[in-house]
Design brief:
With about 140 residues, the chain is an alpha+beta fold. It is about 25% helix and about 15% strand. The chain contains five helices and three strands. Strands 2-1-3 form a three-stranded mixed sheet.
C-alpha cells in the first residue's frame, strides 16, 4: 500500500465529533516544536525567523510554537473551511507545517497529538501506520 493511499484511508471522522455529538474543532497530527533554523545553509531555513521572537534559553535559540509536523495531519471541516475562506490574508512561512500552526495558534481549537502519525519519511510512515498494532489505519 502506498503512503498516499494510506493517508487517504485514515478516518478522521471520529476526531471531528465527540461521543455526545458535539462538534470538536481542531487539528490532529504529530505535534512538535523545535528550533527555528536561521542559517541559510539548512534545508528548512526560515527567512522570517525574526517573527518568532528573540533567542532565549541556555542554547540561545528561537523556537517554533507547537504545531503538527508536515508528514500528515488532519483538520476538522470547520477549520479547513476557515482556512479556505481566509487564505488570501493568511501569512505563509517557508515551511507549510509551521504556516498551518501559525494560522491555528490564535484559534480556540483542540490540538490532538496523534503519535501514530509521527515519522520522518514516507517509508517510515508506511511501516509505522501499517504496523500490526496500528492496522486499523490501513484497513478503513
Amino acid at each position: 500500500m502506498s503512503f498516499a493511499s494510506t493517508v487517504k484511508g485514515i478516518a478522521f471522522r471520529s476526531y471531528c465529533s465527540s461521543a455526545d455529538g458535539s462538534l470538536t474543532l481542531g487539528l490532529q497530527g504529530c505535534m512538535k516544536s523545535g528550533q527555528v533554523l536561521t542559517d541559510r545553509r539548512y534545508k528548512w531555513f526560515e527567512p522570517e525567523f525574526w517573527r518568532f521572537g528573540e533567542a532565549a534559553g541556555a542554547e540561545g535559540q528561537i523556537n517554533y510554537m507547537r504545531h503538527a509536523s508536515g508528514q500528515i495531519y488532519g483538520l476538522s471541516g470547520p477549520v479547513a473551511k476557515y482556512i479556505g475562506r481566509n487564505g488570501p490574508i493568511l501569512h505563509r512561512f517557508a515551511n507549510e507545517d509551521v504556516t498551518l500552526g501559525a494560522w491555528l495558534v490564535g484559534l480556540e481549537i483542540t490540538h490532538v497529538d496523534e503519535r501514530r502519525l509521527c515519522c520522518d519519511s514516507a517509508e517510515k510512515c508506511n511501516a509505522q501506520v501499517c504496523s500490526p498494532n496500528l492496522h486499523c489505519l490501513c484497513n478503513v
